[in-house]
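In the design runs reported in the main text, the only information available to the sequence generator was the tokenized backbone. The following block is the verbatim input for one such run; it is reproduced so that readers can re-run the procedure and compare outputs position by position.
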């Protein structure tokens, strides 16, 4: 008889794992609490406008392409991907200075030389050395890490000299560039992990390299097309995806999971359960208190979590002559990052990001209009911020900042529809403390020290998504799906 596997959560992690399992002949059923697939990568519909809830770009699309081809499917039959060139524009000094990033290496080097004389050589060196670093790190990101002795494996030992151990991301970039703005331009990607560049391990210099080497990509219809494509693929392969079907509890026989209890009260038995829901939220809600030791509630609360994000989705009745992705740095960026990640307070002088996808994608807004997405990185809910009070105040400041620091002059008058989404809303969605990028990516919370793909505390329970190894961000989440599916199918003996 076919092995039966339940997957909890139709986020990118859960869906990617379910798709691989379905493609390998496993009888797989996905249970999703919400009415839509995608989780943090879902579609937001406000009036006639569509937005992405969270992710706005795909990096290293070949990882997703490979998931599809590994089970005989072609990603491009399911969605249309566009590479962006230029990738994004960065604004400094209250919007007075700007710097545009391209994947064209000659143009990029020239732009660096023009704006930051003497730094072009650093860019060449950065690209060459990070290519070697990524080559060494990739095998670690693609392999399970569930034993301490894994640190002695050849893949880790050969990577060690390139891991920049003991150095922060900011320190590493200081080896290449003399300009602070240039260092920020190649380290702000620490925010993708919800971390500070001054705290983020230096090994993560591969993040900006990955953008410069592989580009940033936009699926027509938005990033939510990726989970929708995976749902379609699962169903094409005979798997099932149930929406509005939250899981209330794991069925446990001691430490062994034998199925799930749905919020409807239905008990369904399975051979294995994959948890794709936010890890900390799932352990606190789906497992009775007292069962877990290493990942008990008090121990989870002692871990470090990523920052959160404050979001505005604005449907505006005009087109703006502004790039697809723009980032606006606080004047005192280091202070802003410290307030967001360490002192957990709202910065007066804040950074923000705006996506303007309607310049290349006409499916998101009515003709001549635009769907604008604004993100402000803010502290997670381990802060004492009252978002019922702070949300409207921050919305006001963001609209003022758009007017003063960005090309979006006159945006407020053009708003037809809008939605505000705060850390409280992320938390209500099932994101632990609204920490949108999961458990932090400090070395003490990575690899062996991150929750294992085959969950170490419960039998027949597996993890996938940003809370397990290798970590947050779609390319790594897709790798987690592959590692977990490999563990499952290896264990249940289904031929690949
Ligand atoms: C604002 C923001 C911007 C981001 N930008 C990018 C980007 O541009 N590029 C990138 O690569 N990454 C980005 N990320 C990071 C990451 O790719 C996404 O957060 C991704 O969606 C995480 O996937 P996941 O599968 O781990 O979890 P989720 O997307 O959170 O999916 C978990 C799913 O589980 C469901 N669930 C929870 N509990 C239950 C239950 N009890 N029963 C049933 N279902 C349940 C949830 O409803 C959800 O659908 C961004 C994240 C955020 C928040």
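Verbatim output:
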């Amino acid at each position: 008889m076919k092995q039966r596997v339940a997957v909890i959560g139709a986020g990118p992690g859960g869906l990617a794992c379910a798709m691989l399992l379905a493609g390998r002949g496993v009888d797989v059923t996905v249970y999703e609490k919400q009415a839509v697939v995608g989780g943090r990568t879902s579609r937001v519909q406000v009036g006639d406008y569509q937005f992405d809830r969270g992710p706005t770009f795909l990096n290293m699309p070949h990882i997703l392409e490979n998931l599809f081809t590994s089970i005989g499917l072609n990603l491009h039959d399911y969605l249309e991907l566009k590479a962006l060139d230029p990738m994004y524009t960065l604004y400094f000094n209250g919007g007075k200075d700007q710097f545009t990033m391209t994947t064209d290496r000659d143009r990029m080097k020239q732009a660096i030389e023009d704006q930051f004389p003497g730094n072009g050589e650093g860019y060449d060196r950065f690209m060459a050395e990070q290519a070697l670093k990524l080559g060494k790190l990739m095998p670690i990101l693609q392999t399970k890490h569930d034993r301490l002795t894994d640190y002695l494996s050849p893949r880790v030992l050969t990577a060690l000299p390139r891991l920049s151990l003991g150095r922060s991301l900011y320190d590493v970039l200081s080896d290449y560039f003399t300009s602070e703005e240039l260092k920020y331009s190649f380290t702000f990607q620490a925010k993708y992990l919800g971390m500070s560049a001054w705290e983020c391990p230096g090994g993560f210099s591969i993040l900006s390299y990955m953008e410069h080497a592989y580009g940033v990509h936009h699926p027509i219809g938005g990033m939510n097309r990726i989970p929708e494509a995976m749902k379609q693929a699962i169903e094409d392969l005979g798997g099932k995806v149930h929406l509005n079907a939250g899981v209330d509890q794991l069925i446990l026989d001691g430490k062994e999971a034998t199925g799930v209890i749905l919020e409807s009260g239905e008990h369904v038995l399975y051979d294995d359960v994959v948890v794709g829901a936010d890890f900390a939220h799932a352990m606190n809600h789906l497992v009775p208190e007292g069962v877990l030791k290493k990942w008990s509630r008090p121990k989870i609360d002692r871990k470090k979590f990523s920052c959160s994000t404050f979001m505005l989705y604005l449907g505006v009745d005009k087109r703006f002559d502004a790039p697809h992705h723009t980032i606006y740095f606080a004047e005192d960026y280091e202070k802003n990052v410290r307030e967001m990640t360490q002192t957990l307070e709202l910065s007066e002088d804040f950074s923000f990001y705006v996506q303007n996808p309607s310049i290349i994608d006409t499916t998101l807004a009515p003709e001549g209009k635009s769907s604008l997405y604004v993100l402000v990185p803010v502290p997670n809910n381990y802060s004492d911020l009252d978002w019922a009070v702070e949300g409207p105040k921050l919305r006001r400041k963001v609209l003022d900042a758009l007017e003063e620091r960005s090309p979006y002059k006159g945006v407020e008058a053009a708003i037809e529809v809008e939605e505000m989404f705060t850390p409280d809303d992320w938390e209500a969605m099932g994101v632990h403390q609204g920490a949108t990028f999961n458990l932090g990516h400090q070395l003490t919370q990575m690899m062996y020290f991150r929750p294992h793909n085959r969950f170490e505390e419960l039998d027949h329970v597996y993890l996938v998504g940003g809370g397990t190894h290798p970590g947050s961000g779609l390319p790594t989440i897709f790798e987690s799906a592959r590692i977990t599916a490999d563990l499952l199918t290896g264990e249940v003996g289904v031929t690949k």
